[in-house]
Amino acid sequence: MNNFIQFLRRHTTTIIFIILEALAFTLVLTGNDYHRAAYLSSANAVSGSFNNMTSSVSRYFRLADANEALAAQNIALQQEVAALRAQLVAVPDSVWSDISLESQQASLIYHPAKVIGSSTHRSRNMLTIDRGAANGVKQDMAVINPLGVVGLVSAVSQHFALVLPIINTSSRLSVKIKGQNYRGQLLWDGMSPTRAQVSDIPEHAMVDIGDSVVTSGASAFFPEGLLVGTISAIEPDRNGGFFDLAVDLAVDYNSVYEVYLIEDLSAAERKELEKSASDE
Fold it and tell me: Which DSSP string corresponds to 137-182?
């Protein structure tokens, strides 16, 4: 105790100086909007650079998961190609002249990005990616990875962007059961980062455990048919008439790294039309 008191006596001037400096710094930030904005901007840049550096260190350890994801995507694509070939064989030659070759994919542009910061244990989780406005990233871009839907771009700076994932209690996603047109809403209850819930699917819909849940196309942000997850449990709605579905999410948010941002060239036109109709 005596040593501690002597230490304080010897360094009293230095300690007071540090306390006053900290107090002055706090007063400058809280009392001046310009300095506060400059500090926050610098802190964001430093945080982004630090996240970028730490993600590079862990990249090597995620290569196995990335390879597994790519292999799974390749298998799914091969199965889809095989199914399409079987359908094409069954189409008579006389029908080909009436088939339109226009595709929704023609209006979509995919931008690669990497997740450099994420959380999975909060009620309002967010992801940080290493691409921003300088790379063509815009707010409300859909974000996917080889396994399925990741989320939606919610904020953009010059070189980074924040993604609102499915595992955020503010997330709302219009979905349907693959092969059917009954639409429901996918929500997250803030519990497990591997599971979400779907409501508003009518009881007369043909629903089975293991069925795929995909984006419905009702949103201007997500193209139709993107995989969201698979049904793991089916319960009647409390009010009757609908199902409550538990869905195992396709994306593992504890290991998500490589992502793609979808730029829909027709989204602006659609949103403008819907806005004008709602204003009438």
Answer: --TT-EEEETTEEEEEEEEE-SS-EEEEESSBTT--EEEEETT---
C-beta separation of 158 from 45 below 8 A: no
Single pTM value for the model: 0.65
Length of the chain: 280
Q: By the 8 A CB rule, do 186 and 175 touch?
A: yes
Q: Given the DSSP bridges, would you call strands 212-215 and 195-202 parallel, antiparallel or unpaired? A: unpaired
pLDDT band with cut points at 50, 70 and 90 for residue 108? confident
35-44, 152-161, 247-256: least confidently modelled range: 35-44
Exposure string for 120-149, b = 16+ CB within 10 A, e = fewer: eeeeebbbbbbbbeebebeeebbbbbbbbb
Summarised one tens digit per residue, pLDDT across range 154-196 is 999 999 999 999 999 999 999 999 999 899 999 999 999 999 9
Q: How far apart are CA 96 and CA 88, in angstroms?
A: 10
Read off the tokens for 118.
């994420």
